[in-house]
Amino acid sequence: MPERIAILGAGIMGCCLALEFARRGRKVTVFDERCAPMECASRWNEGKLHLGYLYANDPSLATARHMLPAGLAFLPIMRDWIGEAIDTAISHSDDLYLVSRGSVVGAAATGAYFEQVTALAKTMPGCADYPGDLTRAAVRQASRSDLERHSNACDIVAGYFLPERSIQTRWVADRLADRVTQEPFIELRMGQRVEGVDAGESGHDPWTVRTLAVGDTGEATREAFGLVVNALWQGRVAVDRTAGIADPADCSNRFRVSAFVRTSKPLAVPSAIICVGPFGDMKNYNGRDFYLSWYPTGLLRDTKAAVPGAAPVIDSEIRAAVLRGIQKHLVPRLPGAGQVLEAAERIEVAGGWIFAQASGVLADPSATLHRRERFGVSRIGNFLSVDTGKYATAPHMAREIVSMVMD
């Protein structure tokens, strides 16, 4: 096992890797261009603990099969690392999946897919530890009165209550950042942009990591490590190129933002999502903290470029446009979202870059974004590149990667 380990990126994957290596007695150095860990997409997303329900346009169940083990393992692993109760940060009721008239998958086919995923989940190790205990889970089709109570849009044709949960990602981000900052076996190199890596004469010789201080235009700093793990999301493909890893055949970089709302009083509205296509959703974590998103207006950038460019500045104009999109499109379909906005005491519009080995427009049934089974690890000697896939898959993947290189 190499003595010096570098981890590129201090998002959820980089932090999980660093903590797992440290737990097993290895010192690691973590590089990130931000000034603190967990500041971008890992902090600002809905935190869905994916069971695969979102991918009804993948009837092969390949996406669900790939996501399920990690989704089921997320909470036990995170409790272990954080070292405190986590239940208060988790949504506590079934998600309501609403099928719109414009869905790329019809209501009957969507319902049948949900039944298949639920049956599959019950066969997986850890299903009893998922919130609500999946061994007793069932798909419940929303009644007409359910639909009238929770949605007043004429284009909602069906609904299903599903046993999926979400976690408040800002809560997780604060605690993971604290743990990696306090861990003596982890050295944080914040404010350092990774320019690339250089291999030794063979794939198992030390790799040189080239970094440049943010804002600096001089020569990159060069430092040798026996093992390098690329856990970046923004710019990961460009760094992989310098290591000799070919670009994915299909990929996209999307910058997405959503509204994160704290209300002045508790609200009893359900977590709900409109699927399958250009959707919107609402997460109710604890009655006062909410996530609101209307995908088309929250998608600020969508590019196949390996280096996606600078993140958009979320100014007052963008903030207003995102909230207008939520008011115009989400609130008519989910009246509970209107209650959340009316009771808001604080609203933050934020997000980050999301990488996927997929692309296209969600309104197109043939878009590869409807399948997300292509994520995992690429390797050249002691350089590993990690495509996390989804937020919820990071802890499980981190443990598998550390075991792979240490055992």
The secondary structure category is alpha/beta
The shape, in one word, is: globular
In percent, how much strand structure appears in the residues?
25-35%
User: What is the C-alpha radius of gyration, as a whole number of Å?
Assistant: 21 Å
Roughly what percent helix? 25-40%
Mean pLDDT value: 94
Series of secondary-structure elements, N-terminal to C-terminal: EHEHEHEHEHEEEEEHEEEEHEHHEEEH
Name the CATH class of the domain at 5-41 and 173-250 and 371-406: Alpha Beta
| Number of β-strand runs | 18
Amino-to-carboxy terminus distance: 9 Å
CATH topology of the domain at 5-41 and 173-250 and 371-406: FAD/NAD(P)-binding domain
CATH superfamily of the domain at 5-41 and 173-250 and 371-406: FAD/NAD(P)-binding domain
Main beta sheet: strand number and arrangement? 9 strands, mixed
Number of distinct helices: 10
CATH architecture of the domain at 5-41 and 173-250 and 371-406: 3-Layer(bba) Sandwich
Enumerate the spans where pLDDT stays under 50 for 5 or more consecutive residues. none
Describe the structure.
The protein has helices spanning about 10-25, 60-80, 105-120, 145-150, 170-180, 235-245, 295-300, 315-335, 335-340, 395-405, and strands spanning about 5-10, 30, 95-100, 140, 155-160, 185-190, 190-200, 205-215, 220-225, 225-230, 250-265, 270-275, 280-285, 290-295, 300-305, 345-355, 375-380, 385. The mean pLDDT is about 95. The protein starts with a strand and ends with a helix. The protein has ten helices and 18 strands. It is globular. Among the domains are: about 5-40 and about 175-250 and about 370-405, FAD/NAD(P)-binding domain; about 250-270 and about 280-355, no CATH class. The chain has about 400 residues and is α/β, with parallel strands linked by helices. The longest helix is centred in the N-terminal third of the chain and has 21 residues, at about 60-80. α1 (about 10-25) crosses α5, α1 (about 10-25) crosses α10 and α2 crosses α10. The strands form three sheets. Strands 3, 4, 5, 11, 12, 13, 14, 15 and 16 form a nine-stranded mixed sheet that branches. It has a six-stranded mixed sheet with strand order 6-2-1-10-18-17, with helices on both faces.
